[in-house]
Amino acid sequence: DSGVTQTPKHLITATGQRVTLRCSPRSGDLSVYWYQQSLDQGLQFLIQYYNGEERAKGNILERFSAQQFPDLHSELNLSSLELGDSALYFCASSTGSSSYNEQFFGPGTRLTVL
Amino acid sequence: DQQVKQNSPSLSVQEGRISILNCDYTNSMFDYFLWYKKYPAEGPTFLISISSIKDKNEDGRFTVFLNKSAKHLSLHIVPSQPGDSAVYFCAAIGGTSYGKLTFGQGTILTVHP
């Protein structure tokens, strides 16, 4: 158990809908990272927050947004969903702001868009 | 643009033998490399890492080798155990201190008893 929790575990929705994925980092960790893993792909970095502020952005679509709240949990919002958004979404946390800090991953949320 | 590539989608090895997982990269700015292991229904867990100033790092049964001139790294598992059966991802960092851990596609390792 990494100490990182993600809810829900599974999510099935329809095209055009909007969903919110939630992540609680390990106690004491200030950084939260979001990754997307599509079929047969490695994990693609989406975005990083550190202590409530956006720190780095990767290949995140404009239809996706994220935020980190004062209690350090984070939410990833996916809107106008398309079939191609079906994937595993992982959240990771680390103590500092640098990606050189070890990242601890949650179990992921599997999103299926029908 | 796949900057980190694991060209073998799968590897099958007998228990007790050596497992060698390979990874190639293209970005010369990468200066830190990691291997993660992932079991089904779990997130990736950190296994071992190596800085670009080294060419080898060992931790128990796991050794990572880095060949900077070839932009190639490999993970050796000796001896392999059935519990090592998992997906292995290599990842790299460099050029910036924030975010952007770049992952390969993963290699499924199966260790047969």
Short overview:
By secondary structure, chain A is mainly β.
Mean pLDDT of chain A: 94
Number of DSSP strand runs of chain A: 11
Mind telling me the C-alpha Rg of chain B?
13 Å
| Spans where pLDDT lies below 50 across 5 or more residues of chain B | none
Structural class by secondary-structure content of chain B: mainly beta
Report the order of strands and helices of chain A: EEEEEEEEEEE
- Described by the principal axes of the CA atoms, the overall outline of chain A is globular
Walkthrough of the structure:
The complex is a heterodimer of chains A (114) and B (113). Chain A is mainly beta. Chain A has no helices and eleven strands. Chain B has 113 residues and is mainly β. In chain B, the strands form two sheets. In chain B, strands 2, 4, 5, 9, 10 and 11 form a six-stranded mixed beta sheet that branches. In chain B, strands 1-3-8-7-6 form a five-stranded antiparallel beta sheet, with no helix packed on it.
Task: State the main characteristics.
heterodimer, A: mainly beta, four-stranded antiparallel beta sheet, 11 strands, B: 113 residues, mainly beta, six-stranded mixed beta sheet, five-stranded antiparallel beta sheet, 0% helix, 56% strand
List the helices and strands and how they pair.
The complex is a heterodimer of chains A (114) and B (113).
Chain A: E1 5-7, E2 10-13, E3 19-24, E4 31-37, E5 44-50, E6 53-57, E7 64-68, E8 74-78, E9 87-94, E10 104-105, E11 109-113
Parallel strand pairs in A: 2-11
Antiparallel strand pairs in A: 1-3, 3-8, 4-5, 4-9, 5-6, 7-8, 9-10, 9-11
Chain B: E1 4-5, E2 10-14, E3 19-25, E4 30-38, E5 45-51, E6 56-59, E7 62-67, E8 72-77, E9 86-94, E10 102-103, E11 107-112
Parallel strand pairs in B: 2-11
Antiparallel strand pairs in B: 1-3, 3-8, 4-5, 4-9, 6-7, 7-8, 9-10, 9-11
